[in-house]
Each structure stands twice: as structure tokens, then as C-alpha cells.
Amino acid sequence: MRVVLGVSGGIAAYKAASLLRLFTEHGHDVTVVPTAAALEFVGAPTWSALSGKPVATDVWTSVHEVPHVRIGQGADLVVVAPATADLLAKAAHGLADDLLTTTLLTARCPVAFAPAMHTEMWEHPATQANVATLRSRGAHVIDPAVGRLTGKDTGAGRLPEPEQLYAACLEILGGAVPGVGGSTSPVRDLAGRRVVVSAGGTREPLDPVRYLGNRSSGKQGWAIARSAAERGAEVTLVAANVSLPAPEGVHVVAVETTLELKSAVEEAAAGSDVVVMAAAPADFRPASVSESKIKKSSDPAAGLRVELVENPDIVRGLVEQRAAQGSDRPIVVSFAAETGDAQGSVMDHARAKFARKGSDVQVVNEVGRDLTFGQDETTVHVLRRGSDAVVTVGPASKDVVADALWDTVSAMLG
Questions:
Q1: Lesser CB count within 10 Å: N end or C end of the chain?
Q2: Where is the Flavoprotein domain (predicted)?
Q3: Residue 160: pLDDT above 60?
Q4: Do the domain assignments include residue 235?
């Protein structure tokens, strides 16, 4: 496939480099057409190195090849990511003052825009009118995500993740997305379903200052919740100590300890279709919590002894509760974050945990310092009860893992 990747001058231009890699790694021929402003954020050598082609911003470079006509005419898809408010305005009004805008006028293939800007700019009537104009002409405008923007701002206007943009482009070319009057959207195979997702790592207090915890960032659970919402589900996200902005359209319940997580998940699970336990609850908690800060002893050799008690197994409790009700819902998905040791490999421990918990699906990953926790990419192995098959996903982004998981669960829901 011949792709023209237009890049306009916004801070999100750095994400377009990852989108370019996705296209090229899947064998597509990509010509990058940045604006002059885009090169202020990501330089021409980067685009040339990743695409294997020279880049230009004006119509005068290689003028004998008539690039302002030839590039658009020969493309199977033109996608502009990020598309700034200025670029959307130029495209809507047919302005052609550089190589990218002239390419947009000559393209006769599907054209997609991925806007990225501050919330106020995205919501401004002028921008919304320009988007409506582009859509009325058959262009695809991918709605921006909601999340962290430049600086401390949060809201609508964030460029979707490269994997989401790549999937949207494939949908456009596959005809799964309407050509007029609508933006791209994923398959809505979870429409009408109620989903509960847990995310993050619990904290078990020792005193008012200290706690026992783990390295979980909540990124994988966040991706799972976001993917479910995009696929049409009504999503409750039980978040244990996660600082990420709430995914759009997702109800977030904040908790701290494992007992709080258990209570919130069980309450949300009533009447749900699926529960995904992506959180990392602590296996143990202190038997008692000091009401004041624990002070150092005057004798360094004395140390500190903490008695721990075992926390309840939330997944096992959900499975037992479901059995007591004589129901096959909710489908329960457990996560096994494991490390290998002298007693067995990661998969040995994961299979034993799968048998012990009784969940319907188990997602297995190896954890440790710089492995999985807090990372943007991971590798997982998906086990399904009643099957010996192991589905491996990755190395891939956590968004890709989330979609792969929902593909499995959606098939189970029928």
C-alpha cells in the first residue's frame, strides 16, 4: 500500500514517527510530507531515516517531477497526523500554500485527518465547522482522545496512540468505516455489555506514612478499559493508586488497599458480563497498622519485625460467588504476573495459578525491574480454560494487548 503521511506542526508530531514505523514494518510504502512547522518538532533526517525517502515541505524541491500533483495521485491513502487547527482550516477551505496542502487537493484516494490540539481549540466553533465540512466531502476525521495534553492540561485533543491510528487507517481501506459524515471507530462488538476492569497496584499501610506496595502503573488495565469502551461496553474501572487521566466514557472508582479493591470489584461485578482483574493486589498486608509513624530504634541491631496476614483471593472469590449463583457470568479474566525461580518457570507458576483460581481466561506476563510494570510495551501469553493452546501477543504496546484480549473474550460472549 502506498501511504502519504502528512505531519503538521504540533507537539504530537513525535507520535507520527511511531505511526510511520508501524506502516513500514508492515511492508507499506510511505512518503512523509511534513509542513515547515512540523520540522521544528521532528527534523527531516528522522523522517528520511524511518521512511527511506527524502522529505520536502515545498513544491520547488524536485520540481521537474511535479511532486504537488504526483504524490497525491499515486497514493492509496493520505493520513495527516497530527492535524493542527491551522491545517484543518486550510484543508476545509482548499488552501494550497505548501506541499502537504497541495497534495490534499490532488489526492483521489481516502484521506484521513487525526486532529491534535488543546481542548479549547478543538471545541471552538470554527474548528468544529471545518471538521464538519471535511466530513461532508468524504474525508475521515478521527476524533482525538481525551487525556494529558501539553503541560499540565488534560482534556479532549490528545492524538490517539499510533497503534490506534494504524488500526483506523486499515479500517478505512477495508471499507469498515463509512466514508461520509462519520469518524473512524473500532468494531462495536461489546455494545450492550457491562464490563469491570481493575488496574494498578494496591498499597497496604504500615503506618500513616509507609505502605507495602508494588511497581504496577495501571497502564495495562487502563488500555483494557479504554479498548472496551471504544468497542461499545459500559465500563467500570476500579483503580488502585493510578495517576493516569480517566479514559473517555469510563466510570472510575478509586481504591487503595486490597480489601477496598475486593469490595469495589464485587459491587461492580453484580450483573456484569466480564470482569478483568488486571490490577496487582498485594498478597499480604500488615496484621496491624500503627496509628503514628514508626520511629527508628536507638538500637540498629533491633530492626523492625512486621507480622503479615494473607489477603483474600479476589479472583477465586468471584469464581466461587458465580458458582454459588449457578451462573456462567461474569466471564472472569485473571492476570498472572510471574517470575521464574528454582521451583519452576514463569509458565509453570502461571498454569498452577490458573488451575487454583478457576478463572476463564488468564493473561500471563513476566515481571521484574524494567519488565512489564510501568513499561509501554509488553509480551503476554493468553490461556483459555478448556484449551491447551497458548496465544502469545507481543512484544507490542499495551493497547494492542488489550484489543487482543477483547478479541478472545468477545468470541466467548458470542
A1: C
A2: 1-171
A3: yes
A4: yes
Q: What is the pLDDT of residues 386-413, one digit of tens each?
A: 888 888 887 788 888 898 899 999 989 9
**What 8-state DSSP symbol labels residue 384?**
E
Rounded to two decimals, the pTM is 0.57
Q: Is 314 annotated as a binding residue?
A: yes
Known binder of ligand: residue 331? no
Q: Is 313 annotated as a binding residue?
A: yes
**What is the separation of C-alpha 217 from the centre of its chain, rounded to a whole number of angstroms?**
13
Q: Assess whether 118 and 209 both reside in one domain.
A: no
Q: Which domain range does residue 386 map to? A: 194-284+307-413
In a domain, 290, yes or no: no
Instruction: Tell me whether residue 219 is annotated as binding.
Output: no
pLDDT, tens digit, 9 for 90 and up, residues 232-261: 999 999 999 998 877 778 999 999 999 999
Q: Is 373 annotated as a binding residue?
A: no
Query: What CATH code is carried by the domain that includes residue 33?
Result: 3.40.50.1950
Q: Which of 130, 214, 311, 365 is catalytic?
A: 214
Distance, CA of 342 to CA of 37 (rounded, Å) = 56
122 and 205, same domain (yes or no):
no
Beta strand pairing call for 377-384 and 390-397: antiparallel
Q: Any catalytic annotation for residue 311?
A: no
Separation CA 75–CA 1 (nearest Å): 8
Indicate the pLDDT class of residue 208, thresholds 50, 70 and 90: very high
